[in-house]
Amino acid sequence: MNQFSFTKMHGLGNSYIYVNMFEETIPESLLSPLAVKVSNVNTGIGADGMILICPSKTAPVKMRIFNSDGSEGKNCGNGLRCVAKYAYEHGMVKDRSFFIETLSGLVKAEVTVENETVTNVTIDMGKPRLKRSEIPMVGPEAERVVAEPFAVDGQLYEITAVSMGNPHVIFYVDDINKAPVTTLGPIVEKDKRFPEGVNVEFVEVVNDHELHFRVWERGSGVTQACGTGACAAVVASVLNGKTARNKETVVHLAGGDLTITWTDEGNVRMTGPAETICTGVYYY
Ligand SMILES: N[C@H](CCC[C@H](N)C(=O)O)C(=O)O
């Protein structure tokens, strides 16, 4: 019987099973099936996926994220805040500000510490990618996708697409509580116009610095929160003239609030909590 130690953590209810790969060894071929198994609330531990905290040549730690369907994502905002908390509290970094490597590049973390516990984390998520080829989305490579007509499921919508290293498509709604998250979400997630699939976000604009937000995640379905998605929603809202550039915007997600700014320098900064739920041993 094989086993590995894990820590279950969450960012605004977006929970993952974290595995410290400085201490554990899991064959690469088992990572995807294990992400499916550990995510199952009945036969596994229960989470939105699995996140590996790995050695890196370019930063103190590297994050890899697997969705609950076993697919590997390229970035994870809530995950980054939890990885930053884990790394600081486990003495893997000494400073309160440090880099984390992701599959979509380096990001910078800054932890807030009270009584040796990380209570809040700011991640500089870098610059959003806005060209179709970067989302990726089919169509003229250098074009942006802002308020573009999008026919799907027999209806005509308007979409804005943003990558934060992973693909996001944003639909604006008048009432977040009536957003078609579980009906339209799974259809758009696998729409062929997004060759790598897409995270699907629904946004209700409150004012020029406040949004309501719900998400159907690629590979995980409905989650309580999506950090990269919230960043994409803020960028989309600035591009659509609905929120202000370089101004702290509060995004209300099902699991709580994130504060996000798309700075004039071009980077997106996200601040929010990260919490440890439990530790344990998983047998497989
Ligand atoms: N929940 C994550 C996003 C996971 C993205 C993943 N669903 C994908 O891109 O495939 C977050 O906080 O940013």
TrEMBL record:
Active site: 76 (proton donor), 76, 226 (proton acceptor)
Stated family: Belongs to the diaminopimelate epimerase family.
GO molecular function, one term: diaminopimelate epimerase activity
Entry EC no(s): 5.1.1.7
Native organism taxonomy: Bacteria, Bacillati, Bacillota, Bacilli, Bacillales
Record protein name field: Diaminopimelate epimerase
Pathway given in the UniProt record: Amino-acid biosynthesis; L-lysine biosynthesis via DAP pathway; DL-2,6-diaminopimelate from LL-2,6-diaminopimelate: step 1/1
Enzyme class: isomerase
Positions with a binding annotation for substrate: 14, 67, 77-78, 166, 199, 217-218, 227-228
Keyword annotations from UniProtKB, A to Z: Amino-acid biosynthesis, Cytoplasm, Isomerase, Lysine biosynthesis
Entry keyword annotation includes Isomerase: yes
Quaternary organization: Homodimer.
Role noted for this protein: Catalyzes the stereoinversion of LL-2,6-diaminopimelate (L,L-DAP) to meso-diaminopimelate (meso-DAP), a precursor of L-lysine and an essential component of the bacterial peptidoglycan.
